[in-house]
Write a structure and sequence with these properties.
The complex is a heterodimer of chains A (about 400) and B (about 250). Chain A has about 400 residues and is mainly alpha-helical. Chain A has 16 helices and 4 strands. Chain B is built from 9 helices and 10 strands. In chain B, the strands form 2 sheets. Chain B has a 6-stranded mixed beta sheet with strand order 6-7-8-3-9-10, with helices on both faces. In chain B, strands 2-1-4-5 form a 4-stranded antiparallel beta sheet, covered by helices on one side. Classes of the chains: A mainly alpha (about 400), B alpha/beta (about 250). The interface of A and B includes residues 9 and 217 of A.
């Protein structure tokens, strides 16, 4: 019997075994496939709400009567003026109100005396939800201040440029796809996450599970060689992992293209081409993670022990993209050599619609490929050690 | 034929656990050889060595002239092993469990299907053949494990405590099966600490104590040598003297 046939026999058995574990399959499908799109819909709605809030600003005001011209300006700008409750500061602190405007009772008197009138914008900037309202209230007040100043200059026959020598033009270089950066992070991260979680259940069952239920010892007494056993299991885990990744990405694809998502001004780019590119980028990682899970799982004498060890491994791996997100710096060139970070970088690029040169992909695949080979050899060595049988003599 | 020559095996960091200390014996083809010994006598270690799962520290063991270390894979092709650990795949059916091992031994197609059918029928598992092993009783699981070990019709059969957890009916049918295999000229070595097994079945008994072979021969030989009328008394007196020697 050929070596390849034995490897495929092992792989086939592991795949059948995994597919029959209905509970594990269900949990994997739910976490990997359903959770992503659900999360996505939530994020979209949150972003859309924020955009709505900025558009129709409701502004509680203390002292409306103190500056009627300002209030008229705000109303012309579609702001809904409300009278502020007495405890507006406490309400802002508690998050019930986003922002409030206080107008100095001495406003008219100050302006008449040639001094600047005082208004106070009250907010809590630590609240993400309130940020859109704060920003738009702020910019409206600045706009009013500029308009008023300009009118005074014009009355005195002075060109506006005299008082405003600098003309600021905003040029935002973000393409429409780039602006949804949080969603971009989420999709890229979730692609990585799926490839890490997808292989976990079958890997644990095929390794520590095999040891725990006592089916490894008789298996090792067959003509199967340790490396063949390792390769067969690796193929099964990898195939399952790849299937989970594909399903997760299809979930994203369907959600982003067909779900009734609120329009948030981000024509998001995740079509069939991106889906294929994602898979291509993640392939080396799927190979690597399957072999690492196999190694870590095989070291566990019991499922519990292996679960704990695999948990640590996955935690470290899932943290990497967050570190990268927090770093906010331009990616250093060596990052493409580092597994996971490289894949995350390339996934982000694919989402932004950037080209991915073949050399970059090769660079990102090299370390995972080498590590995969190392891990598989290590698994084979582990399987040929006598201690794999357990301590009984 | 199994030949074990001055086999030694130690465990522990400083090799302080002496599992087998210079065991020598042989098991012939067409005979059932029983490896009898108290718990911790080294039975499982010996069987694992013969199954090529562990390598001896000194001495040698061979099966049909093939060394268990050097010719490991050739040995594995001709042995059927019921090891100490004998777990089944709970989500596979009895048939699939046995088939898997058949395929690993290079069998396939109609020949394998026929072989699996024959074995399952022989073990009275035909009704359970396509049920998942998950709900099997201990006896049913044991039978599937033995069927799995025999799927490639091995010339040498190693069984580690095969009657553990079996009810009397299953034990009787297992005995029938082993006698049938003896008839077919197989070399059968099984370990046990149950005296009745040895008396009922074995052509040769190898008594193991503290990792050494204390005595070997047919049941009648052992009884006449010790002057006891029962195998149990012979066993106890042999072990007693064995412990005396070890001390």
């Amino acid at each position: 019997m050929s070596s390849a046939a034995r490897i495929l026999t092992v792989a086939g058995k592991e795949i059948v075994d995994t597919l029959r574990d209905r509970r594990t399959i269900l949990v994997t499908l739910l976490t990997a496939i359903a959770a992503g799109p659900v999360f996505l819909v939530l994020i979209f709605n949150m972003t859309a709400n924020q955009a709505d809030k900025a558009r129709e600003l409701k502004l509680p005001v203390v002292g409306t009567e103190n500056a009627p011209a300002l209030i008229a300006f705000l109303e012309r700008e579609q702001v809904v003026i409300q009278s502020a409750p007495a405890d507006y500061e406490a309400k802002i602190r508690a998050g019930d109100l986003d922002v409030a405007l206080w107008i100095d009772p001495a406003f008219e008197a100050d302006v008449a005396a040639g001094k600047a009138g005082t208004v106070r914008l009250v907010y809590d900037r630590s609240r993400d939800r309130a940020r859109a309202a704060i920003n738009s209230a702020e910019s409206l007040l600045f706009a009013y201040s500029r308009l008023w100043g300009a009118q005074r200059l014009v009355l005195r026959g002075i060109a506006i440029e005299v008082a405003r020598p600098l003309k600021i033009e905003d040029v935002d270089l973000a393409t429409p796809q780039q602006s949804g950066s949080l969603i971009l992070f989420l999709v890229a991260f979730y692609g990585l996450f799926a490839s890490m979680m997808g292989g976990m259940a079958p890997a644990l069952d095929a390794t520590a599970g095999e040891r725990e239920r006592g089916s490894l010892e008789p298996l090792l007494a067959t003509p199967l060689e340790p490396l063949q056993l390792a390769l067969g299991k690796w193929i099964a885990i990898g195939a399952f992992d790849a299937a989970v990744v594909v399903l997760t990405l299809i979930g994203f694809y369907l959600t982003l293209n067909f779900a009734p998502l609120p329009a948030i001004g981000v024509p998001f780019l995740f079509g069939a081409a991106e889906l294929a590119r994602f898979l291509w980028i993640l392939a080396p990682l799927i190979a690597l993670l399957s072999s690492l899970l196999l190694y870590v799982g095989m070291r566990g004498r019991s499922l519990k022990e292996a679960q704990a060890n695999v948990g640590v491994l996955l935690f470290l791996f899932t943290m990497l993209p967050f570190v990268q997100l927090m770093a906010q710096k331009r990616e250093p060139p060596w990052l493409l050599w580092a597994p996971i970070s490289a894949q995350y970088t390339l996934l982000s690029r694919a989402l932004r619609g950037d080209a991915i040169p073949a050399m970059d992909w090769l660079q990102s695949a090299l370390a995972p490929a080498l590590l995969t080979v190392l891990a598989l050899v290590a698994v084979a060595r582990l399987l040929s050690r006598e201690t794999i049988l357990g301590a009984r003599s | 034929m199994i030949e074990v020559d001055r086999l030694e095996k130690y465990f522990g960091k400083r090799r302080e656990i002496r599992a087998v200390e210079g065991a020598t014996f042989r098991a012939e083809n067409g005979k059932i050889t029983g490896l009898l010994g108290p718990n911790g006598a080294g039975k499982t270690t010996l069987l694992r060595t013969l199954a090529t799962l562990i390598a001896p520290d000194a001495g040698s063991a061979s099966i049909d002239g093939l060394d268990v270390v050097r010719d490991r894979y050739a040995v594995r092709r001709r042995i059927g092993v019921l090891s100490d650990a004998r777990g089944l795949y709970a989500r596979l059916t009895a048939r699939e469990n046995v088939r898997y091992y058949g395929r690993l031994h290079g069998l396939g197609g109609a020949a394998l299907d026929a072989r699996v059918d024959t074995l399952l029928t022989q073990f009275g598992l035909a009704a359970l053949a396509d049920r998942r092993a998950h709900g099997f009783s201990q006896g049913e699981r044991m039978k599937v494990a033995i069927a799995r070990a025999l799927v490639h019709d091995p010339a040498t059969i190693l069984l580690d405590e095969p009657t553990n957890g079996l009810d009397i009916m299953s034990i009787r049918s297992l005995r029938e099966l082993l006698r049938g295999l003896r008839q077919a000229g197989k070399c059968i070595l099984f370990s046990t600490h149950v005296m009745q097994e040895v008396a009922a079945l074995c052509d040769t008994v190898v008594i193991l104590g503290h990792g050494r072979v204390i005595a070997s021969g047919s049941g009648a030989e052992l009884m006449s040598r010790t002057g006891h009328a029962s195998l149990e008394d012979a066993f106890v007196s042999l072990l007693g003297s064995g412990e005396g020697l070890a001390a």
